[in-house]
Amino acid sequence: MAESNNNVEKLNLHGLSTEDYVRAEAMLTVEQKAALATRLAAGLNATDGNPEQAESAEAILRLIIWNGEPSVVETLAHAAASNPNTPHSVAWALANDDEAAAKPILTASKVLSDEDLVAIVEVTDNFAKMGAIAVRSDVSGELSRSLATHGDENTAHLLLNNSKADILDDAYASIIDRHGDHERIQQGIIDRDSISAEVAERLSTIVGTAMAAKLSQRHPASNRTAAPPPPAAPPPPLAIPLGNMEGLSAEEMDGLVARMAGERSLTVTLLIRKLTIGNFQFFCRALAVLTKSPTYDVFTKMLESPETHLPDLWKQTALAPGWLPVARAAVTALTSLLNTYAKSDPALFRRNMVDKTSANLRADKVDVTDEQKKYLRSLL
Amino acid sequence: MSEALIAPLNCFVVDDTLHDRDLLVTTLKTIGVKHVITAGNGSEAFQALAAATKPADLVLCDIRMPNGNGLQLLHAIRNGAIKNVRMDASFILVTAHPTAEAVKIASSLDAHGFVVKPVLPEKLSAVVLKARRTTFPVTPGRYAKVSVPGTF
Asked: Inter-chain contact B113–A58, Cβ cutoff 8 Å?
């Protein structure tokens, strides 16, 4: 092979015409063709000032792509990918060629325009090609949108892990809608340097408690990039369907909590009971009403660090301080069990919640009153 | 495997030389193609393609021909000018004279293949299979500005 390549190195590429190449082609081995393709691709840098020679080299490379063995075309693709002087027609043909040849070009070639890449993404059904585009050192917002719309879960994963990719909100929305149930997609979004409040909100509607806590920690509401809402506007609607919503929508639950607050029936035992049936939504909304805090803030605090924030919130309510340890134990229990809610029988979930809450109270060495013990037993 | 992909193709062969045309048809049949329609130049092909009851899956066309050369036919297809033919139809050019100019225009029009005569069965089989695997994003207006001379 080394000898074959040496023979090719002796070939005078200067002035080599397409006809010359076609005549020689039949006599060249695959290795020689690959070596020739590499030399021609590299030589594109040296054809400055000689358009005829450049045109001829381009035409030969194009013939190689049409007729060369796959390994020859792949070798050419690797040589052309990093060369800024690769003619557009060569890069374009390689990008639309078989996967092995296309991938290096799609990832590294600076010759292809955004328009080219978007067009390829919209037509190809090859997810490996989309993945190769997703890891480029520059991915525009338009290209990200196209990848998010047409790519598979792996494409989305690669795009999210590309710190150079400009991902617009509608692309995030598309990724969340199409692949949001995959944990690595959720993690990928959370790991981005910056996401808007809208994206965080959308993601928060589908993630579990642990991921929600990570989201809240990495992208606290104050650091998110969206423009703040006008002062008169209502806070963004919260729809974090964590656990048991008891068949109510977020709006209906807000209405119920407001009505019960008006009737002064948001009692401490009701709040504990809601926690034990997995209704974290009700608990947070009730705390928000009782502390006169924005619901969103309460959710954020409770997801971020219930140990820190629950005592502060509790102090702002008229709820009996003696029940705070019980509420804290129940929230801790719920945090560890909430992910199992969807898979559990409601009665079993409630029993597990009461058991876990009682265990947490014992672990914290809390003096539980008889009344509290009796109430917890009544929930079984 | 390759025969299963090739056999059902509806192919159009366009060449002004009867001998070359027959040779292309025979070679296509050798590699397993069952349906072949022929035309003697670009203009004839234009009409035959537009009138075909079954759309062409693959066009195999000589470049140098009187009354409409191969690149003009490809240009018409890519610009959606022929009824019943998809703009992204697989199109393979065949020539005995692979000039840089012809290669450049064929490339600009996203030809799926460019074969130099003589077209042997192994070569044709590989080129047809590659053409069928390759999907160029053919969009309206992309090829409108490509200029094709009437003669080569």
From this structure: no
Q: Which residues of B touch A (CB under 8 A)?
A: 97-100, 103-104, 106-108, 110-111, 113-116, 123, 126-127, 130, 133-137, 139
The arithmetic mean of pLDDT across residues A312-330, rounded, is: 91
- DSSP state at residue A279: B
pLDDT digits (tens, 9 = 90+) for A348-367: 888 888 888 988 898 888 88
The angle formed by the CA atoms of residues A298, A299 and A305, to the nearest 5 degrees, is 85
For B39, phi then psi, to 5°, come to -145, 155
With respect to residue A76, please indicate whether it lies within any of the assigned structural domains. Answer: yes
As a whole number, mean pLDDT of residues B52-68 equals: 94
Contact residues, chain B, for A55 at CB < 8 Å: 100, 104
Name the residue in chain A with its Cα closest to that of B102. A59
Say if residues A252 and A277 touch (Cβ distance below 8 Å): no
Give chain B's mean pLDDT: 93
Q: What is the mean pLDDT of residues A151-169?
A: 96
Cβ–Cβ below 8 Å for B103 and A63: yes
A133–B contact, CB cutoff 8 A: no
Q: What is the mean pLDDT of residues B59-69?
A: 95
Total residues belonging to chain B: 152
Tell me whether residue A334 is in a domain.
yes
Q: Are A78 and A176 within one domain?
A: no
Greater pLDDT, A233 or A303 = A303
A22 with B139: Cβ contact below 8 A: no
Backbone angles phi, psi at B114, to 5 degrees: -145, 100
pLDDT one-digit tens code per residue, B81-112: 998 899 999 999 999 999 999 999 999 999 99
- Note if the pTM is more than 0.80: no
Coil, helix or strand at residue A229? coil
Same domain, A31 and A148: no
Is pLDDT of A270 > 70?
Answer: yes
Asked if the structure places residue A244 within a domain, the reply is no
CB contact under 8 A, A62 and B127: no
* A245 located within any domain: no
Task: Say if residues A303 and A212 touch (Cβ distance below 8 Å).
Answer: yes
Structural domain boundaries enclosing A233: 113-237
Number of structural domains chain A divides into? 3
